[in-house]
Amino acid sequence: MSRRSMREEIVNAAVEQFHSRGFNAAGVKDITDGAGVPKGSFYNHFASKEALAVVALERYGETRRLAELLDASVDPLLRLRQHFEFLRDENTARDYARGCLIGGFGTEMADHSDIIREAVRVSLEHWAQALAVPIAQAQESGRITAAAEARTLARFILNAWEGTLISARSEHADDSYEIFFDTVFGTLLT
C-alpha cells in the first residue's frame, strides 16, 4: 500500500492541529511533526501557514456532510435536523473540546488575516447555501412559513449554531444544544 503524499499528510495534520489548538497555537513544526514529515518539506508545498489554513478550512468543510443536505430523497426538515444532530454528536463525543474550525478561525483570525477571513467567509457562505436548500424545499411544500427567505433563515440558523457551539464548550453541557434544537425545529421552522 502506498503512502499518501506528503502534502496530504501535512493538510491532515494541519486540520487536526488547527482544530484542537487554534491557528496561533499550532506551529509549523507541530504540524509537520503530526504529519511525520521534515519541517523543511512544509515550504515545498505551502507558501505560508496562512495558505495552509485556507486548504485546511476547505478540507474541514468537506467533512461537514453538506451534500447530505441536498439529498431530495430525504424529507427536508429531517435532513436539516440530521445535519445538526451529526454536528452535535461529533462535538459531544470530543467532550465539547473543539467546536467548529470555521467558527474558530473566524473568531481568532478574522481581524488579523485577510486571507483567512475570506476563506472563512467563503466557507460560511457555502454552508449557508447548502442549508438553504432543504429550508426552501420545506417552504415550497408548505411545511414551514415562507415569511423569510430561505437564504436568510439559513444564515440565521448557521449563526445560531456557531453561538451554540461556543456556549456548549463554555458550559460543557448539552443545554445549549437543547435550546438550539427546540428553537430552530420547534419554533422557527414550523
Tally the helices.
9
CATH topology of the largest domain: Tetracycline Repressor, domain 2
How would you classify the helix and strand content by structural class?
mainly alpha
Q: How much of the sequence is in beta strands?
A: under 5%
Total number of strands: 0
Instruction: Kindly state the percentage of residues in helix.
Output: 55-70%
What is the CATH top level name of the largest domain? Mainly Alpha
Largest sheet: none
Q: Looking at this structure, what is the CATH superfamily of the largest domain?
A: Tetracycline Repressor, domain 2
Q: Do you know the CATH architecture of the largest domain?
A: Orthogonal Bundle
N-to-C span: 51 Å
Radius of gyration computed on alpha carbons: 18 Å
